[in-house]
Design brief:
12 strands; single chain; binds magnesium ion; Dna Ligase, domain 1; binds 2'-deoxycytidine-5'-triphosphate; alpha+beta; 21% strand
Amino acid sequence: MAVSPPSAERAILHVDMDAFYAAVEQHDNPALRGRPVIVGGTGRRGVVATASYEARAFGVGSALPTAIARQRCPDGVYLAPRMARYAQVSAQIFEVFRSFTPQVEGLSLDEAFLDVSASRRLLGTPMAMAAALKEQIRHRTGLACTVGVAANKLLAKLASGLGKPDGIMQISPEEAVELLAGLPVDKLWMVGEKTATRLQTAGIHRIGDLQRAVPALLSRILGNRAEPLRRLAMGIDERPVVVNREEKSIGAEETFDRDIDSLDAALAMLMRLTERAVVRLRDSNHLAAVVQLKLRQPPFVTHTRQRQMRPPSAETGTLYACGRELLEQWWQAQNEPALRLLGVSFELTEGQPQDDLFSAQRKPSGVEDQIRARFGDRGLVRARGLAKDS
Ligand code: DCP
Ligand code: MG
């Protein structure tokens, strides 16, 4: 049965960094480049978090016990993870993602879906955006990623998997059915272990079998999930990109009719925005733990810069001084600085007024909290086991 794609086709990118932790290590220490690098628990019962592509040639990869990895690849360089550093690089890549679209759904430190449907008018075809995105990530971090391009999440993720490493891969709706047909059923996100077993018992092993299955049979096995699953098998996936919940923050921003091209004017605007935001900050009875600037250059390149406040504060002067430093640094780093939009926002902390000495017990959140705030507990699960062990 032929199924036609939805008329207003979406443009979804799935971006995934290549050998993320290992690539960061190779970037930070050039002596490691070209060598098999294995990051993970280095203790007796440690497991591999990831391996560089050089190490993968030895059959070493994620979740393999490190002890076995050492047998397969005795000359590899074995390193314990440096989560704080990976989180820092992650923040940089997400900043690049958000300069293409606000519709960013982070899945882990190194992976996200971007709905760039509305960016097409301004930034060109999805393939052009994928190329620009790769370029900007390399420029910003020195690292390679792979971008999958398609009309939905299912196919975009499939595409990035096929394009790895350092690639761009597009899957059109026409190609999707055939590509999916050869894959095992449990590659579909709706199919967990239980469903897979049930399908296999009925002789449905590959997605192609699902595509051809008699509807009545499928309904018997899957009940009301039969139809959605059959559609997935045909490459139809209407799940939206769900923007991760931001940490609680308060801010003020403004888009200008005429771009601001002098630092003095930009600072004056920053002062106005800071005052405006501080009024709301005080109303909320919170302190600012982080000051963040949003800086958009014409036509649409958005940067963010942020800094922790130690101690957290609700004082206009203190917060402005922090924003001012960030703005001046950014301004000096630009070729032809100009602002189409400027925003300042404060990440809130539960802190009570500063005369309460005990409020200092609530420290600004650590790396783990930041990761959790962005991705939920999911973002930490994998790295957790490692940290304990090593
Ligand atoms: N990770 C982990 N434990 C796992 C899998 C991954 O700790 N079982 C960590 C290390 C990875 C990072 O998460 O560097 C990203 O995971 P990916 O699955 O995207 O794997 P990589 O980025 O390392 O490699 P690839 O190029 O295959 O994406
Ligand atoms: Mg990856």
